[in-house]
Amino acid sequence: MQKLPRDPQNDYSREMAATRRAVVTAETGAALEHIGGFSFDPACLPGNIENFVGVAQVPLGMAGPMRVNGEHAQGDFYIPMATSEGTLVASYSRGMRLTREAGGITTTVIDDAMQRAPLFVFQDARAARDFGQWVEANFDTIKAKAEETTSSGKLRNIEQYALGKMRWLRFCYTTGDAAGQNMVSKATRHACLWMLDQNPPGLEHFTLAAQFDTDKKHSHVNSLHTRGKRVVAEITLPAALITDVMHTTAAALHKQRQFSNMGTMLSGSINNGAHFANGITAMFIACGQDVANVAESSAGFVYGEIKDNGDYYFSVTIPSLIVATYGGGTGLPTQRECLAVLGCVGKDKVYKLAELVAATVLCGELSLSAAIVSDQWVSSHDQLGRNRK
Fold first, then answer.
1. I need a labelling partner for 363 at 20 to 30 A (CA). Which of 133, 334, 342, 380 fits?
2. What kind of fold does domain 118-207 have according to CATH?
3. Could you list the active site residues?
4. pTM of the model
5. Integer distance in angstroms from the first to the last C-alpha of the chain?
């Protein structure tokens, strides 16, 4: 196959995209008519993609309105969801109706941190321990060095984890409206180069990453200590409303919740909920998020309890929700339009987006759980989710 052409002076143009499509068509025989149909100027794409040829068009629906009583997201919202799974938008909309009629979802961001975890290897455990003590004593200087590379990233603390003669330092930052993975990598590297210049006694090896930051992978440490935003969505649902909207009861939902907890324990799942990833992925695609971060963001915890009056308290906690309203794909034309629908364009909007994602997840959990309990799960997919063409 021939090499894909590039133009070093103007690679992001309609002409270069068409040239590359023509090469692919000639080599494979595949017509790229729909891939080549897009409305924005490719000049906006540097930093987002290479070898641009066109677009992958994912259907976009709007769920809602969803009522949120957050600290940052307040009011009624339409939720853009990009998906090819039938019933998804309808199911989330049903959960949004239930929670809206119950008065709305309370959302709270309870922690915020993005990490890079370099590894320092020493000649023995004693030297590694002494280095850890030196890091604690010199934190203020390390923090200042790290922050020389960024105007919005702030190093809040460094966690330490020891194994044998190895010591991982988990640098934890706040990153403003950006997701921050690249930001914290650069800042941590800069700080570590200064640390290496101090010639730590007994140091044998250094690497900027050795899997402890678990970038784009779930880990138990993230569930305990947060990566990205740790956000909770919660609501208390009147028992009569559950029967009216969801055609089941609070008692039945709570009983199913206990069975689901047992299944989660038995299977070793990272989530005791039904489908966090569905809502998160659909919103991520629509709103220009790094979709690979669903690997971390879809971990979570569901909790429910029957109140003394028969009402049902229900919450979801997402411990490692990685979202952004600045950088990455958030400035692309259609993604920016979706962020505008949510009121999440502009400075200091990332917590609002995090609250809206968590509230959406809660609506999806309630709707799917109720569908399973009331035996509407299969019938709803038969009605809305089967593509018979």
1. 334
2. Alpha-Beta Plaits (3.30.70)
3. 85, 290, 381
4. 0.94
5. 34
